[in-house]
Design a protein that fits this description.
The chain is α/β, with parallel strands linked by helices. 17% of the residues lie in helices and 31% in strands. Strands 1, 2, 3, 4, 6, 7, 8, 10, 11 and 12 form a ten-stranded mixed β-sheet that branches. It holds the Pfam family YkuD.
């Protein structure tokens, strides 16, 4: 009996993991494999690296969802409080993207249109932004802006938002900063993961309506 008890007790004691197995376990936690939609895009003009999805909560991942709205298919809806952008599809469905939005005092809302789109756009910060951040002067409109690339704040794609025939200066654009999705961090623009904005770019037509829902908890500029 003693021998059997000792054997049973020994069975409850696991063998301590080796340093190698611990390292592998930690690596798996920190660096999960990205879903196919967030894999690297080596064929882009500037190859886009895979998204580090350990920095993006799965609730912000792109998804096809049921979406009840009176807006017609093709409309872009930015739900600022929820940190989601919806591209309305037929049949009560929509493609949903996690987004980063404008921080307090820089957010905006209203109705406008997506006037046009650009792949790998140049970035020209408005004069008001340059006045707040003089280090941006080399990229001002007068100096021709910043050329396209992975370090360009507009990322891989940009959708330009106009209201009443005028540029609102707000954009929907890509960003490599995965940890900014779901947060209020920008100077008013709507940011998506580069892979997501490429997907959105391919779905949205020039002239599509856009509706931006305000966040009551934040100061915002009404557009239209």
């Amino acid at each position: 009996m003693i021998g059997a008890s000792a054997f049973a007790l020994a069975g409850c004691v696991s063998t301590p993991p080796t340093a190698t197995s611990v390292a592998v376990a930690i690596d798996r936690v920190r660096k999960p494999e990205p879903p196919l939609m967030y894999a690297a895009m080596p064929d882009e003009l500037f190859p886009v690296p895979a998204v580090d999805i350990s920095k993006v909560d799965p609730r912000w991942w792109r998804a096809e969802v049921d979406y009840d709205t009176a807006e017609k298919p093709g409309t872009v809806i930015v739900d600022t409080p929820a940190r989601y952008l919806y591209h309305v599809n037929p049949g009560g469905r929509a493609t949903r993207y996690g987004i980063g939005v404008g921080r307090d005092g820089f957010s905006w809302s209203g109705r406008a249109i997506v006037a046009y789109k650009r792949k790998w756009p140049r970035w020209t910060p408005p004069d008001e932004m340059v006045a707040r951040q003089p280090k941006l002067k080399p990229y001002s409109i007068a100096n021709g802006g910043m050329g396209p690339g992975l370090n360009n704040p507009l990322g891989s794609r940009a959708l330009y938002i106009h209201q009443g025939g005028r540029d609102t200066i707000y954009r929907i654009h890509g960003s490599p900063e995965a940890n900014s999705i779901g947060k209020a961090v920008s100077s008013g623009c709507i940011r998506l993961l580069n892979q997501d904005v490429i997907h959105l770019y391919d779905q949205v037509r020039d002239g599509s309506p856009i509706v931006v829902i305000p966040d009551p908890a934040m100061g915002h500029l009404m557009v239209g």
